[in-house]
Specification:
The structure holds two protein chains of two kinds.
Chain A lengths: L5 H15 L8 H19 L3 H18 L5 H36 L14 H16 L9 H9 L1 H4 L7 H10 L4 H38 L4 H32 L17 H7 L2 H12 L9 H19 L3 H20 L7 H20 L3 H11 L8 H21 L2 H12 L2 H25 L11
Chain B lengths: L1 H33 L5 H7 L7 H7 L11 H21 L5 H15 L13 H21 L4 E6 L2 H8 L6 H17 L3 E3 L4 H6 L10 H19 L13 E3 L5 H11 L6 E3 L5 E5 L3 E5 L1 H5 L16 H5 L8 E6 L9 E6 L4 H7 L5 E5 L8 H8 L3 E7 L8 H4 L4
Parallel strand pairs in B: 1-2, 1-10, 8-9, 8-10
Antiparallel strand pairs in B: 3-4, 5-6, 5-7, 7-9
Chain lengths: ~475, ~400
């Protein structure tokens, strides 16, 4: 089930809200938590009727390991922590990477044996990382062990953030599981945020996807001219932002509707003027996770230059491979590592004019998204080759794609900027705040109506990060 | 300001509540309709509601005599999938005013966003689609070999390829590439493969309705070609004169009002050829509906039932006018004398193969047509029951992208 589907918008979400805020039972925290848990499991089982049991089993293992970590003997506790982390890593490797490994092994050895083909459970990377973060937080004493299995299950499976993040750290929601206060203010902000995210997904990302998918499919088949390649690359760069940040907005908004306050996952990443800053603004929950649970435990910055380099390389390779089982993701992570190390130790463009810094950052990001999106390293290089004019500069198809995507590219570029808040400031200065609020309200109603129209009349459009 | 925000929140929640109410009304109306209660409101909300109660079938064990025995896990998955599709059906197909919404979304897409590209379906690469399809066909062919049943794969070209030859209109290169890769694999495999794309004579004769579907004279031409091949390579004895176009008449021209309506709705003249002199048939659709009579009586619906898709104009005259009568499984018995006493052919096909099968049936004792994509049972179980002399897989190449073990139920 995706947030932009009619089943979610017009059945699941309203039903959960009605039952959650049902007058006789709304004061009962246990009822509300149980309700959220049941519906979260239904939400996950909707797409994964079998793998929901895998998730439940993993929750049970995590719960038991968490209890064991509190034992007096630190050595034993550490053993349990190791076992727990190992369990989650093995689950991730088996379901996400084993098929890839078997395929590559067959290719390297040159045998034609039957390939291992294991289905990838949706959102496994997210909920596995959340469970690992729980185990780490309990071990480091950042959070108290959860002695109620249902509460832990709720933390892991909470439907707003289950499938595509943000990766919610246990310490963030520990108190809110039992002691949150739902308020009209939060609900209002939450619904607004949800609608904004829905608009980003249904009205922008899905349109960009058409151009991006068409161009990449064309590139896979044969050579494409430079203009087509750039159109596709820019379309994908914008698509992945609006798709993912839209989903995060929806997740944060939904969390607020139920009294949970998740941390921001994006902060206008395409405004960054260096790669280092870009990764402080993009998928913040993931970079924080790797920083706190991999980089810092390895020594972080508090060691010799050699170890710092090692730690950075490890984190980036893991970041790359977390996104998927393909050499392109590893290459993507590796290239970001190189760029970041170059910025940190070789040359930082801090002294460049601001526009040049932005241009350089966006250029690097755009080129590396090409590697990320391509199905193979060969495809990635031939696409990059096309971008630098290695084939023709343009043809009829390029102009046709340009005509078909000009409006959406301009609109989405504008929407990447904090144009909305700037416009609001200007309008508040010129008109009354009430007028601006009314206008905002109408805009949101329009966005929700249009997204609903597309949902009812359109087809299935899953989120990109769904597959991670 | 607070009151404005409250009003905004109230409006947004009202839209979601409105949708929720619609869904409840759709479900309620459907229950009313099946229990015989009907009024304007019930009709409005239940018009297109057609839930899939596959989960009930599985729960009750009523999966039909061709069902493959399922393990407990598979039964659970069937129940879950059936429940999911039932609820999704209620939430997606029946919203009142969905036609208006479609037009609104088209206005936004085409007039506001100027977006004229169509979406690429699915997330796999062309090679992956082609390989998966080829794997399915290979497995099926191997199984037929083990059962000593000859197999022939026939591929019909799709609209976009034809347009690329006929009118040089832009075509989706990605789709053609998938179909070409699949065809190359089939040609190299040794599986008997008739690819109508290679038949340039056939290509030049092709004309289209606006869904890219063949006109019936193309189907007749394809049937003639196929009959000739079956005679040459499979020991059949088709009377090829049966496929001479001079022996056919256009049934649509007998109904000028329908002809006019098709011209108005689709912008072209539509014909459907039926033989002037026809054998007598008994045809069993889905092992429940039995029809007997001549060609027109068994293969075409009564004229009063033509154009019964409530104004849909998306799939072209062939599909939307719904002239052709067929089930998921249609077993055709020719009661007049044929050159093929005791012969029976099983065709696994889609709408491209229906008229071809009808034309071939004029000189076959028995031919059955099964649409695997909608068949609830197991294809191999049915074949074991039907015991055909020849199995022909007769699909339009656009379906290659959806060949997988789920589509055809060809799981182990």
């Amino acid at each position: 089930m995706v947030f932009s589907s009619t089943v979610f918008l017009f059945l699941f979400f309203p039903l959960v809200l009605i039952l959650y805020y049902l007058p006789p039972l709304r004061q009962n925290r246990a009822y509300r938590n149980t309700l959220l848990l049941v519906f979260s499991l239904i939400f996950y089982a909707w797409g994964e009727p079998l793998f929901v049991f895998l998730m439940l089993f993993s929750i049970l293992v995590t719960f038991m390991i968490g209890l064991m970590e509190t034992c007096e003997n630190r050595k034993t506790a550490k053993l349990f922590l190791t076992a727990g982390i190992l369990y989650h890593v093995v689950i991730l490797v088996v379901f996400k990477y084993l098929s890839f490994f078997s395929q590559e092994l067959n290719r390297m050895i040159g045998i034609n044996s039957s390939r291992i083909d294991i289905a990838l459970p949706i959102g496994i990377s997210f909920f596995t990382f959340q469970m690992m973060s729980y185990l780490f937080d309990v071990w480091y004493g950042k959070a108290k062990v959860q002695r109620n299995l249902l509460n832990l299950a709720l933390y892991v499976s909470l439907f707003p953030q289950l499938i595509a993040g943000p990766i919610v750290r246990y310490e963030t929601v520990e108190m809110e599981i039992m002691n949150r206060k739902e308020s009209w203010e939060d609900f209002s902000v939450g619904i607004r945020r949800f609608v904004i995210g829905l608009g980003k997904k249904a009205l922008i990302a899905d349109f960009l996807a058409v151009t991006a998918d068409n161009v990449y499919a064309l590139a896979h088949v044969g050579p494409i001219p430079a203009l087509t390649a750039w159109l596709g690359a820019i379309a994908y760069m914008l698509q992945i932002y609006f798709d993912f940040s839209g989903y995060s907005d929806m997740a944060i908004g939904l969390g607020l509707c139920f009294g949970f306050h998740f941390k921001e996952n994006f902060r206008a990443p395409y405004l960054a003027d260096s790669i280092v800053e870009f990764w402080r603004r993009w998928h913040i929950s993931l970079t924080d996770w790797f920083r706190d649970y991999v980089y810092i435990p390895l020594g972080g910055n508090r060691c010799g230059i050699g170890k710092q380099l090692r730690n950075t390389v490890v984190v980036w390779l893991l970041t790359g491979i977390w996104h998927g089982a393909n050499w392109t993701f590893l290459l993507w992570g590796g290239l970001y590592c190189c760029v970041q190390l170059a910025e940190r130790y070789v040359y930082h463009p801090a002294h460049w004019p601001k526009y040049l810094r932005h241009f350089y950052t966006l250029l690097v990001i755009c080129l590396l998204w090409v590697v990320f999106r391509s199905v193979s390293i060969r495809d990635a290089f031939s696409y990059l080759h096309a971008m630098v004019g290695g084939n023709a500069l343009y043809d009829e198809t390029s102009l046709s794609y340009l005509r078909s995507s000009a409006v959406i590219l301009v609109l989405s570029t504008v929407c990447c900027l904090p144009a909305g808040s700037r416009l609001k400031q200007i309008m508040v200065a010129r008109h009354s705040g009430a007028f601006v609020e009314i206008l905002t309200g109408f805009s949101l109603v329009f966005i929700l109506l249009m997204a609903s129209v597309f949902s009812i009349s359109g087809g299935y459009s899953p989120f990109i990060y769904f597959n991670f | 300001m607070k009151s404005i925000k409250k009003a905004e929140t109230f409006c947004l929640c009202s839209i979601l509540a409105g949708g929720f109410l619609c869904v409840l009304l759709i479900i309620g109306s459907w229950f009313c309709r099946i229990h015989g209660f009907s009024n304007v409101l019930v009709d409005l909300f239940s018009r297109n509601a057609s839930p899939d109660f596959g989960w009930v079938t599985v729960l009750r064990g009523e999966e039909g005599k061709y069902a493959r025995p399922k393990s407990a896990v598979e039964k659970y998955e069937s129940v879950a999938a059936g429940l999911k599709s039932t609820i999704e059906n209620f939430c997606t197909t029946s919203f009142p005013g969905s036609g208006v919404m479609k037009r609104l979304s088209d206005v936004y897409r085409q007039d506001v966003m100027r977006s004229t590209l169509s979406a690429v379906v699915g997330g796999k690469t062309n090679q992956e689609y082609a390989e998966e399809a080829f794997k399915e066909v290979s497995r099926f062919s191997e199984w037929l070999d083990s059962e000593n049943i000859p197999f022939l794969y026939v591929q019909f070209p799709f609209e976009t390829r034809i347009r690329s030859y006929v009118s040089n209109a832009p075509y989706p290169a990605a789709d053609l590439d998938t179909w070409d890769r699949f065809s190359s694999m089939m040609s190299a495999s040794g599986i008997p493969f008739l690819n109508f794309n290679d038949q340039t004579v056939l290509l030049r004769d092709i004309s289209l309705d606006d869904s890219g579907h063949w006109m019936s004279d193309d189907a007749l031409h394809a049937a003639a070609f196929l009959a000739e091949m079956l005679n040459r390579d499979y020991g059949y004895h088709f009377d090829l004169s049966l496929f001479d176009i001079s022996r056919y008449t256009d049934v649509i021209s007998s109904h000028p009002e329908i002809r006019e309506r098709i011209e108005k709705d689709f912008g072209y003249t539509y014909e459907f050829l039926v033989p002037v002199s026809s054998p007598q048939y008994i045809v069993e659709h889905d092992e429940s509906e039995v029809v007997s009579g001549d060609f027109s009586e068994v293969f075409l619906k009564p004229v009063s039932a033509w154009d019964s898709r409530n104004g849909s104009r998306q799939a072209g005259a062939y599909h939307d006018t719904l002239i052709f009568r067929n089930g998921v499984l249609s077993d055709i018995h020719n009661l007049s004398g044929t050159n093929h006493k005791g012969n029976r052919i099983l065709v696994l096909g889609d709408s491209y193969s229906w008229p071809v099968v009808a034309y071939l049936s004029q000189d076959l004792d028995e031919i059955a047509l099964l649409h695997p994509r909608y068949f609830n049972g197991d294809v191999r179980t049915y074949i074991s029951h039907f015991q055909p002399d020849l199995v022909v897989w007769m699909y339009v190449e656009a379906q290659v992208s959806v060949f997988n073990s789920e589509t055809f139920g060809l799981v182990n």
